[in-house]
Amino acid sequence: MPNLPDVVLWSIPAFVLLTVIEVVSVRIHPDDDAAGYEAKDAATSVGMGLGSLVFDFLWKIPIVAIYTAIYELTPLRVPVLWWTVPLMLLGQDFFYYWSHRGHHVIRVLWACHVVHHSSRKFNLTTALRQPWTTWTVWPFYVPLIAVGVHPAALAFCSSANLVYQFWIHTERIDKMPRWFEFVLNTPSHHRVHHASQGGYLDRNFGGILIVWDRLFGSFVAETERPVYGLTKNIATYNPLRVATHEYAAIARDLKAATGWRERAGRVFRGPGWQPTPKSAGHQAVTEPVA
Hints:
mainly alpha; two-stranded antiparallel sheet
């Protein structure tokens, strides 16, 4: 097994320090147009982050078992060397893009990811607002295991990707240098991703690199100031409700559905999908989501 560091654990002191610096900077130099901080919202985000550590550990048990079985079955092996690690990071970031995009356009996956978008604030504590049902993510990385990437190496790359994305959850940084903005994900790009305006919906899915969005047509530059949150916001700071509210909504819609086609649409179509009246002659329409 590769001996790789736990980058999330090592980064916790930096998370705390940077959050304190951001809170102080907001207090000293507030921006009237920025979303800023709210104590209850920040506490919910931190609580969601702590809860995700527990649930991720539980989900990790069956996921590691599946990955290990696939790894043992494949004859391919990617050694952990100084030049292969950047390639594995690149591969993980590519599949992260598709995982992230999939979690925006398939409702049952969105039920997991919506947690991260449920805050109407945008600050470093928002980065900690993580879902508790990440069992929906693992299938997207099966190709990496199948080509011989060790599960521990994949875990390292995923952690590095997560740590990188911490600093982009801020309004205190306007724009990075042009070359940086072109290649890498930045606070400006990620503010667009968290916005609820129509032109910003379902955009900028990249983790470390923004080039995937440029290549696959999902990139939008920040122009107008974002309005954060969901198209239909939830009025709760209860972590359990934040973690499960979309699953509960799916259950209600399934109960009210009139047929199997509608039930399938409620689960596997877009989060805003609604069946059209039979008189319209079409099966369904979709609406964008935050």
